[in-house]
Amino acid sequence: MSRPPITQHVQHEGLHFRVERRGHGPVVLLLHGFPDSLRLWDAVAPRLEAAGCHVIAVDQRGCGASDAPVGRQHYHIERLVGDAAGCAEGARRPRTRARDGTRLGCRGGMVSRDDPAGDGALGGCHLGRPPDGIRAGRPRAAAQGPVHHRLAVRGLAERWLTAGNWARMRHWLRQHPDPDSCIHGLARPGRLTAGLNWYRANLRSMLLRPWPQCAVPLLGIWGSEDHCLAEDQMARSGRRMAAAWAYERVEGAGHWLPLEQPERIAALAVDWFQRCRV
């Protein structure tokens, strides 16, 4: 049985972040997605630790026990990338630093880095490279997920998702093993708006800005029963790679891969990091 993780509260850019770390070796940074917290990785992290990794899981800004600054300007992707590096550094890994390739790591993704060379590898679940991911899956996402035009209007989206005892959010979370825990977290003052600000702050730039080729090896993972995002959102990302790329389709899995198949996700990650010599 693995030991409990060490919980830390890291300060970065004037905000406090909850971080859990365990193990020793190459760093694997675990980043959850909306509307989760670092609890998403509870079954994956011990398996990565057993494989010889120093695992760092983070409650991202606006989520879990981390601070939720008010205003969408606090959720631009450059700040989110900076959070990843800042939290890793605050967890006593001072050599760990962000790379441009981090932008390819989706929410709900894994990021591993090896120092001192600074080379590393990324693993991402569900969502591929912007803007290809958004454009590829737009019809399916608009029909089945909460990430569409309604989210752009503050107040309207919050009312739409929470109406009828969170009926629409519960429908979107229908594949989640514990939807009540997600809704409980979002029901705290300001937390639903903070989560939606991830999309509000970045949707325009993801669609319109010129995105560089990713220079860090990337493994994309997608579940065949994902009811939110289309497969080409991940599969098309290979066209934008300037480094090694691989794609894994996990049959019979839905949107919350780390909760549904933690052993499979951990095994894929460890194999990928070894192949990339991380």
Which key terms come to mind for this protein?
Rossmann fold; 9 helices; 8-stranded mixed β-sheet; 35% helix; single chain; 278 residues
Question: What's the SSE blueprint?
Answer:
Elements: E1 6-12, E2 15-22, E3 27-31, H1 45-50, E4 54-58, H2 77-90, E5 109-113, E6 120-125, H3 132-144, H4 156-172, H5 179-186, H6 191-208, E7 218-223, H7 232-235, E8 245-250, H8 257-260, H9 262-275
Parallel strand pairs: 3-4, 6-7, 7-8
Antiparallel strand pairs: 1-2, 2-4, 3-5, 5-6
Mean pLDDT rating: 83
Q: Would you state the CATH class? A: Alpha Beta
- How much β-strand is present in the residues? 15-25%
Overall domain count: 1
Strand order of the largest sheet: 1-2-4-3-5-6-7-8
The ordered string of helix (H) and strand (E) elements is: EEEHEHEEHHHHEHEHH
**CATH fold label:** Rossmann fold
Which regions contain 5 or more consecutive residues with pLDDT less than 50? 93-107, 113-118, 137-145
Give the full name of the CATH homologous superfamily: Alpha/Beta hydrolase fold, catalytic domain
Number of strands: 8
Secondary-structure arrangement, i.e. CATH architecture: 3-Layer(aba) Sandwich
Radius of gyration: 17 Å
Distance between the termini: 26 Å
Shape: globular
SS-derived structural category: alpha/beta
Instruction: Report the helical percentage.
Output: 25-40%
- Main beta sheet strand tally, sense and closure: 8 strands, mixed
- How many helix segments? 9
